[in-house]
Amino acid sequence: MKKLEDIEEENRSLKEEMRKRDSLFVEALEEMKHQLDQIEEHQQQLVAPIPEEPEIDASEQSSQEEESESEPITPKKDTEVYGQDLEQIKGTVLAETNVT
Questions:
Q1: How far apart are CA 60 and CA 66, in angstroms?
Q2: What pLDDT shows up at residue 100?
Q3: Is 74:80 a contact under the CB 8 Å cutoff?
Q4: Cα(10)–Cα(47) distance, integer angstroms
Q5: Count of Cβ atoms closer than 10 Å to residue 65 Cβ
Q6: What are the helix and strand counts (H, E) for the chain?
Q7: What is the pTM for the complete model shown?
Q8: Distances in whole angstroms, Cα of residue 27 to Cα of each of 11, 17, 45, 64
Q9: How many angstroms separate the CA atoms of 81 and 92, rounded?
Q10: What is the pLDDT of residue 14?
């Protein structure tokens, strides 16, 4: 009889351990669910409606690229801007900012 009582006690003890483990598992799952909900909410906040821009056809895009390629940008070699010498402008700017 003592053996039967020991087995029953061990059985109760094992059941209690299983309940504790199940409880911890459920808590972990609930925490993970909470974190996933927060991540989803954060992602929804990050996704803002983007105004639709008119799509450029491939033919229009290639013609725009050709135009930009056909017109090379060359720096102007003029030394005057609105009648003032560039060195004068540079000197004025440097004097105003106290840079030497």
A1: 10
A2: 45
A3: no
A4: 55
A5: 10
A6: 3, 2
A7: 0.41
A8: 24, 15, 27, 60
A9: 14
A10: 97
Tokens of 81: 């801007």
18, two tokens: 């299983």
Cα 43 to Cα 4, 27, 40, 46, 56, distances in angstroms: 58, 24, 5, 5, 29
Confidence of residue 7 (pLDDT cuts 50, 70, 90): very high
Give per-residue pLDDT as tens, 16-75: 999 999 999 999 999 999 999 999 999 988 886 776 776 666 666 655 555 555 665 655
CB 86 within 8 A of CB 80: yes
Q: 43 and 50 in contact (C-beta within 8 Å)?
A: no
